[in-house]
UniProtKB/TrEMBL annotation:
Lineage of source species: Eukaryota, Metazoa, Chordata, Craniata, Vertebrata
GO BP terms in the entry: rhythmic process
Family statement drawn from the similarity comment of this UniProt entry: Belongs to the G-protein coupled receptor 1 family.
Function: High affinity receptor for melatonin. The activity of this receptor is mediated by pertussis toxin sensitive G proteins that inhibits adenylate cyclase activity.
Protein name: G-protein coupled receptors family 1 profile domain-containing protein
SMART domains: 7TM_GPCR_Srsx
One Gene Ontology term, aspect cellular component: plasma membrane
Amino acid sequence: MPENVSFFRNRTELGQPLGADGRPVWAVAVLASVLIFTTVVDVLGNLLVIISVFRNRKLRNAGNVFVVSLAFADLVVAFYPYPLVLYAIFHDGWALGDTQCKVSGFLMGLSVIGSIFNITGIAINRYCYICHSLAYDKLYSYRNTLLFVGLIWVLTVIAIVPNFFVGSLRYDPRVYSCTFAQTASSSYTVAVVVIHFLVPIAVVTFCYLRIWILVIQVRRKVKSEVRPRLKPSDLRNFITMFVVFVLFAICWAPLNLIGLAVAINPPVMASRIPEWLFVVSYFMAYFNSCLNAIIYGLLNRNFRKEYKRIVTSVLAPRLFHTETSRGVTEGLKSKPSPGLNNNE
């Protein structure tokens, strides 16, 4: 049991009931509630994203292939690691064996690293689409896009494998999770934070900064050698993915900063980090997995409309069938414009 658990044990002076692990019952209930909400929204939201892209032709483009890949990365934790974390919460500890712990930790890392690498891929895709529009169609052909996504997942797996040699996938009772242990190795912890967080964040920041500069130039009608492919729908789509990136950075920055602090001197710094701060930063990171689908629905009209169609088809199939038939009839009467973008 970590020394920081004393923070919770001291709460007995206030007469609060404690669980078997020495934490107030209310604190455990809050953690469980947050994770249950995150898991449910994660599963439903990201399934809606994937189904929407496959159903709606306006959403089927190279950029949204990365969006589907990101949704899959978020789903990985909801289907396996999160349920095991909930099991540990309800049983006051890990009781599923070392193999399950390693598998859970591996899938947790697969989701986290896959998410940040896919967000990086999305940023590069948006940068090429807006800032290098003449070469975009050739660079992001259907085949090349699938190769890029495949490369992202290959790099993700390669990035996780060293954990098994360092022995850094362990159960942490503070967060009821089998996850990356920041105290396993100072140098490895620094490498993880730099390669898995700081470098991708720097690449994404560069891409979006260049896009913002170009947007400002276009708005101010500044002459430029680059002739950007910039329509209102492109701008809205860019803003959507920019918000996704900002929320990811906000949710994951505290935990990574704690990792850097611990890496300075693990035996000393690990005990100085307040447990409540570590737990809050961890569950903030967990919470990020359910946010992307919400952002797409709020900021992208085509995603929002497709969400409604899918939910309607489930809750009121007769009404959905009637609206679909009417839409097909109207579509035959008027041929749609071929230039529709994924947010028009």
